[in-house]
Amino acid sequence: MRRICVCSWFIQNSHYKRKYHQTSITIMAPQCPSDGMPKESSPFINNTDNDKGNLYDGKNMALFEEEMDSNPMVSSLLNKLANYTNLTQGVKEHEEADDDEGPSPALGTLIGVYLPCLQNILGVILFLRLTWIVGTAGIMESLAIVAVVVTDSVPRCWSVAGGSYYMISRSLGPEFGGAVGLCFYLGTTFAGSMYILGTIEILLTYIVPSAAIFKAEKKEDEAEALLNNMRVYGTCCLTLMSLVVFVGVKYVNKLALVFLACVILSILAIYAGVIKTITHITLTSDHTSPQNNHNFDQCLKTMEVDNVTVTTKLWSLFCDSPDLNATCNEYFTLNNVTVIQGIPGLTSGVIRDNIWGDYGPNGMLVENKHQASEPAADTSQDIYMPYVANDITTFFTLLVGIYFPSVTGIMAGSNRSGDLRDAQKSIPIGTIMAIATTTFIYISSVILFGACIEGVVLRDKFGDSVKGNLVIGILAWPSPWVIVIGSFFSCCGAGLQSLTGAPRLLQAIARDGIVPFLQVFGHGKANGEPTWALLLTGGICEIGILIASLDAVAPILSMFFLMCYLFVNLACALQTLLRTPNWRPRFKFYHWALSFLGASLCLSLMFISSWYYALVAMLIAGCIYKYIEYRGAEKEWGDGINGLSLNAARYALIRLEEAPPHTKNWRPQMLLLLNLDSDHAVKHPRLLSFCTQLKAGKGLTIVGSVLEGTYMTKEAEVKKAEQNIKSSMTTERTKGFCHVVASSNLRDGFSHLIQTAGLGGMKHNTVLMAWPGTWKQWRAFTVRETTAAHQALLVAKNVDSFPTNADRLGQGTIDVWWVVHDGGLLMLLPFLLRQHKVWRKCKMRIFTVANMDDNSIQMKKDLQMFLYHLRLDAEVEVVEMHDSDISAFTYEKTLVMEQRSQMLKQMQLSRTEREREAQLIHDRNTASHAALNDKADAGPDRVHMTWTKDKFLTERNRNRAEASMGVRDIFNMKPNQSNVRRMHTAVKLNEVVVNKSQGAHLVLLNMPGPPKNRGGDENYMEFLEVLLEGLNRVLLVRGGGREVITIYS
Fold this sequence. Notes:
The protein is α/β, with parallel strands linked by helices. Helices cover 51% and strands 8% of the residues. It catalyses: K(+)(in) + chloride(in) = K(+)(out) + chloride(out).
């Protein structure tokens, strides 16, 4: 039993980084003139003739002289563009390194695109499988197969403008480019295996069958023998072809014309033989019988020789002996042998019998259903008889997959784009012309085959009924050998081109550095020949050779090619829809809908041909994508995925702007305010860790800091600080954005960040910062700013003792002290923290404070019911704080606090007075100097001094007296009763919190609001210090004025 032969053409060229209409060009700023002359040193522009070589053009361009070092002249730019080439070293043809004649001449549309595509499309599918497809599917369904595949290829040719890998990687990014590029490489490599297997099949089946090493004694052993022969001869052929490619690629290119001539002559021979060729086949009633390798010419069971009836050689094939009384196959005995015309011709009307298909299972005998016959009772042994039978189960989608490799050759022109005179013009036109030509040939061949050849002959895949000849060969004129030799050289040429193109594609991927473990394959010989890549390609080809079955190899390469074409179309459509400024297709008939149609058809064909192979190919591409994303080198190619992300972000931001988020969707969107040390490094990296634990990678995180000064003078320091912060964010696994601003003072800088950070609906709603080391670093203005902006504020004290992301806290508690309700943020934060593995084992406890008039028992029940509705698991405890007399300690602490505050004010006033005295001395000296320089006629009335000596002394003594009296008042003052009550609350609440939560892993506490009078900010900070005294890890929480937690899911 023979296996189906599925062959296809695909030629790869060595140039994979191609010129095409999306290429972006970077021109380095010139530092000196191109002719090597020194720059002008004279301040005059028009003083010498040496200036003609400079980048500016004499005095006419003097206005732009200062910009010449960074911005080149237009003339210089145009000169660089005219000499631009994007051919990479190592991707040029081998002969360019061997010959000193310079680069090869630029190719036009006909030679560079049309003929290579024609040669690749018209390949072994036409010669070896098209007749079988027509006989199995019928004329109508065969035309449908051609239409489906051509419809898929036409949009792709509109999209093609450069090498496939280069287009995909530069349009969809290195991840997609690397994944699809490697799939394309594997497809090209397995295509080489398929062409080699096709070459060996033609050699052993139609040219020299006697050369087979393994020969089958029985019919059922023929398939295994053929596979073993394929493996042995295929390995030898692969070795020979690899040596040819290694020795010199120029020989492969020179033989391309010979291969193309063979293809054209074969097609002409088919058309010439449509009317001329007529042959006969032998039928046992309606069953087709073989004539190959059995050396019989008489289609008879018996014949008369000298008036004696003797059996023929046909008899011995179906009977156990040549005697007339031998036991024969039942069907052979019941039916007579009939001779019909295998190719009755165009006017025979056989086209009516071949309109519709004749599918069947594996082992089904090829029959002429219009021929009457006597059925046999027992057909179980028929498959072991030399009848022609199906070697595979046939159905429509299978035939689509078998036919598809015939159109993979449309990329031959785009893969040669570096050799074209005008790739943007030649590739679409040449490819469309090639598709139009080959489509006409395929459609006409389908119709002519169905109109000229008998159906049973068409379904005879290997030509067993025509003496082992190619079915299409017996139609050709003048000899079947024209087709046999043409198809043999076509397979050889396609195999050589695959072994030439695949290593260069792998080399291009390796040199891009997007897949680290492939970098070794970017090296080669001195002239750039990819030696290591050729060795790997040969090894992968050998895997296909060892498979030995064309039926198994063909679907593999079809999936990889279809995936490549899918992303080529997707890349072009994406660039058009995103309206990328550098995407300017020159081909005026291009439209994004054609690319989307092509992408949809490619995806459909993948699953139509073989859904399991499609899933495997997608899995391989997905694994490569994730590997490149995780380990690959970072590349910035301006790919379309970034543009797609920008458009999606813009759309989402506009949608978010329409309405504020619902309480169900509220989550803390962080603005993290960092302090930097003198080296602009992050002072508290644990704050980043805590943010990561709180966010778990979700939502918005903006990390900001402020440098004192102007941006003009601090630009370098700002960039250095941003790099340090980004490095710390990476270390602490904080996902977000970094923003460092320069401002005249820290207060204004942090205020600007709080007001302007974020964009549209993606603005922060929560500010997180560390507790300041000294009061000078932070005043209550941050609390006021966030309150005015309706943003929540989180202040972490002793943040350096907070756990890192690598820590795992054991059994412990997160204590929440719920004193006032400000939106439920205190309830939500512990829940979010416990989602992270650092805090996962911690339990949540909620404490609330009851006054004398409150029912603490009822409060506890209500709070438990509230938490139940919120679906929060926490322990509840109500702490009673009884009214008590203010202690002497509290009174004394408040007094000391106010005395210190007053003293700071006096010190500030004294400094002001000192500045005023210095100004008075400066004014007096200035006035005295002016009086001494007056001329003699200038009278005293012309000098008017603001401060006389007596007035100055009087004013200074008065200020000193006021200062002395202010110091005496500090020690005689009494504390403000409001401050005493606040201090009392801070002291008593601190005692309760320390008593209950000193051993907790984290304490969350309501942050009291700042005083309405801004003059008491120092006292406010003192209250907070007293409130938090004796606690290790504390997070002060102040809500943003809205509900952030709800009982609804």
